[in-house]
Every structure is written in structure tokens, then in C-alpha cells.
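Worked example (supplementary).
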Amino acid sequence: MNSLPQELIDATIDRLPRPSLLSSSLVAKRWRQRSQQRALERIKFLSKAQVNRWCTDFPQDPEGIISYVRVARFQEIFSWDDPALFGHVLKSLCSLTGLCVSWTKIPIELPGQISRGEIGKGITVLHLHYAFCTLATTMSIILSFPNLEVLYIPDSEDGSEGPLQSYPAASQRALLDSLKLWGNSGGIGKALAESGFMFRRLSLDVGLLGVEQLVTLSCETVMELELNGV
Amino acid sequence: MLTDFPDRFVQENPCRTLSLPALTTLDLNLQNGDPSPHLINILSSISSAPALGSVTFRHDKWSNINQPFQGPWIDVDRWLTRVAQRARVRGGLYVMLQWLPKGMPVWGGFLPDFRRAGGQVKTDV
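After joint prediction of all chains, the assembly is encoded as:
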């Protein structure tokens, strides 16, 4: 075992199914790091209790194993006892590149924490599926992530769209890689268009508000265009 | 507003005429059989897409396509013809029809002007 090159061990671990990774991390010291990296690469929080356990059970050392987390999904957390907890967890996940928020309340404090650079500097992929917050908060979050590339909004909460209003311009980083905007997300489409976002890849439901504006704004940059429900 | 389809054009939210110089693929997921006036509206606003190499139509009710060839497909045919004539991609523009029932042939009269302009119609079966 000791004569095996590390690359071969890593390649073996990369082929293991996720349920085997706990066992593989216990095989030998040389198996531990890669197994932990793979096991923690994508994590899901399916309740407030899981979020609380994450904070208490995992050492919050930014250079420790929590740095292995690349993608975090928060699902069906309809309210927060402590609104700061969401931001606190995101802050601890310092290597995060992808964030998915599904059927989950987004505290109003979050955009401020992002824009102050406290969290989300490395996030390039944002997936919002029924994120419970106002349209203004949603837009503030999108505008605040400094390195956002991919935006996926398959649906938003009915009541979250709120009155249409003006949003700040998206400034220098207005060109993103891709946008998927489907279902009941019309207010966000119009708001993105008003903010001047442009994209290389667009996937849009044609019935949404702002579709023509989004295509028009991206006319020089769009390489792939998908129109749904036409 | 310059449009190829003044008879069907929907003027609710007029777009300006668009040039999409970087566009390489266009995917259209049809829902109700024929392309809607809204789609015709959007296509009509695209005056130029010289890099466009493929247009894919996805639809699970291909058997409902009007025969003889008529309706909004004529507008689509006209738009595709215009784009095909101006295409600068190697091999030209092709149309892909996806989710056709297995064994269903592509009707020879489908998109006639586009075919005459050198466009190809392919299927994924």
C-alpha cells in the first residue's frame, strides 16, 4: 500500500460512490484527505437542525475540512430562529463556488454581508428556486456577488416579486456566462434587464416579463439562446 | 419596425431589429404544437445571425404539425430562409427536429423555402 503513488489512490477514491467515502477515509492516512474532500464537496442543509449541527459539530477552521465544501444547498428552511445564522454558515464556507437556495427564507441582512465582502467572494454559480425574500433582496444578492457567472432561477415565490422598480446598474461585471430563467420568475427577468445584465447563454421562458429586453441587451454577446414554451 | 411578417407580427412589446453576431445555436421548445405569435415576434426581431449553425425545435406532438404546410410554420420557414442565405458557418445552417416519434419520417414539404435555400432538416432518431 505504501508504494502506491498518491495519484493512483486519488483516482481510486474519485471512482467510489459517495456512501463509501466515510469508509475510504478510514483506510489509511493517505486516503483521508481525498475522501473527505469528495465527501464534503457538495453539502445539503435540509433543516434548521442540520445547520445548527454544522455549526456545533464541525470545527469552524477556515483551513480545515470545511474548506473542502464547494457547493452548498439550503432546502426547505422556511424561517430562521437566528437570521444571522445563514450568513454565519456562508461565511464559514470560505471555498464556496456554488450556492443553491431552494424553498428557503433569505434573511434581509444577507445582501449587506455579501456586498461588504464578508461572504460569497468565490461564488460563481447561484441557483434560486423559490427563495423566500422580496424581489429587491433577490436583486441585491445577484448584484452583490462579485464573481457571479451562472444564474439559475427556475421559479420564484408568487408573492416575492413585489412591485417593479428601478434597480442599480450592474456596472462593470454586467456580462455573465449564463442565465436560466423559467417558470414564475417574471419580475426577476425585468429587473435583470433594467440592471443591464448581459449573458453569453440564455435560457428563457418566453412568457416572462423582460424576455425581449434581456435578448436585446445580450445581442452582441449571446452565443446560445434557448426559448421555452413558445 | 422592419419585419418579414407584418400580417402576424404582435406589436405588444416591440423589439428593435437585432443583430446577433455571436449566436451559434438556437433551441426552441414548443409547447402548443405550432410556434406561437410570441415566438414569431421574437424571431422577426432577429435580422441577422451570421454565425448561427443550428436551430433545434423540441416538441412532443409532432404529428400535430399542420399539413399541408401552413400557418406560423410559413413564417418560421421565411425567417430560417433569410438566416440560411446569410449564414457564414461551414456546412450552412441546419434545423434539428427533436422528440419525433420513432420511425416518423420528416415530411418532405416541411420548411420548403429553407430547404431550397440549402438548409438541411435533421432528426435525432
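Two points are worth noting when inspecting this output. The CA atoms of residues 11 and 34 of chain A lie 9 Å apart. The two ends of chain A are 59 Å apart (CA to CA).
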